[in-house]
Fold each of these.
Amino acid sequence: MASTLEKFKSNTVGSQGRILDFTPVIASSGAFSIIKDFDVILNSWNNILLTKTRTYMSNPEYGSDLYKYIFEPADEVTIEGIKEEIRFRLMKYDNRAYITNIDVAFMADGHGFILSIGVEYEDSNETLNTAIYDKQFLNFES
């Protein structure tokens, strides 16, 4: 029996075995844009990393706990914790690609960090760059 992903791939017009997804964009032509192949995986991984766990009632484990590292000391222990969280969450929720490397750079103001994740998928390599910082996850008023 085919998986849901296989059914989606075979029933999407023009997909020819490619993975497709739709992402919301602000554009004059419409509210959604089609993304394909590697971009689908990068979008999925970014969503996993930026979604706090316990956000979805139907699946409270979905997402990551990277926000918990925002105010941690900028040291090797924190970097290893961040890397382990990334590996665990991405391989648990979307293992279509492989992580080749993870670089963590702390922000100068000390309120977050920038991630650069090397991704390999079907003999192609890309980099997912994303930032985790305080104002994304915490509601501070200026």
Amino acid sequence: MYVLRSGVVRLGAVLLLAVAVMAAAYGFAATNTVPDTRAGDGAGNINGYIVSNVTYTLNASNPQQLDRVEFDLNAAAGTVKVRLQTTGSWYNCTNTAGNHWSCNTPGQGVQPANELRVVAVE
């Protein structure tokens, strides 16, 4: 009888330990917090900008170079870049007032300039 009680006590102790470990694991898992997130799918129109009032500024000491190009966009934009030569460099632009943009074009020659490509995003 003693052997049977000893086995029952050991089994009870093992079960009690297992329950304690599971409760601790649940307690750690229960404290996790995950913030709300959003996901979705949808469609909307992409409307282009209208570029107007384009002006080019020649370099004062070498008129074969363009120092800057400026223009207006018909709506607000966050990032604007221009390219003046097919496969040429892209130049960053700065919003100087309202929707007026100025783009410094150091080293851009007048003669190879063959396009005014404006890329703008909201």
Amino acid sequence: MTNIELQRWRARVGISQEKAAELLGVHRVTFDNWESGKYPISLAVELACQAYDAVYPGASHLGKNIVKQVDEFKSAYLFKYKKEPKGKHLVYAPWSSTKYMIIDFTPNGSQQ
């Protein structure tokens, strides 16, 4: 996947860079570096984008659904454990064909 294809994917899905970064579990700066061509886009990112397209082709509500799910997970985690989630967690994702996704709650959002 090229940086132009990534830009087109984000436009097709209808989300901001910030929401796209959150969707993919990375920091917004990392996503911006992919879109600008500074960093190569990994196969994992390309496959994640394709998976979202397969489940929600052209759906602008995709980002809202995922962000809502992540926010609900954070709230539940905070309620149960009395602290913010850190690291990678397996999260129920009803919009996904596999029904689960791994979300990285690393403070910098770094992911390879």
Amino acid sequence: MTPAVGGSETFSTLTTLRRAQLANGRDADATKSLEKALASPTATPIAIHYLGRQLQAEGKTNEAVRVYQLNAKRFPGQWPVNVGLTRAYAATGDRKKALEYAKLAAAQAPDPVNKKNLENMVKLLEEGKEIPQ
């Protein structure tokens, strides 16, 4: 089954298909759908970031880190790529790198709410504390 919207696969349909495949024990197919989604021309930096967050929530830290890093390669400098890198490095215990990217992300924040959240992350990291995942 190929997901289609207007005759073409999209990031959204492929990630939905991935969830259905995982729910049905079709892990290999889910991995293929994930790779297609990440390569899709319809993928955006925000959509990829949210996928990374979803993977973290599922306890799939290594996959989330890979997704955040792929987002950085595909969309360098775009919002919220540096937030994802902050989360990736924090999840792997590299607080120094996490702090570096948190500061970059805070400077890029598109609105006061995100800026405040990122400033809080910076503060936690500067204090040697973990950030909420």
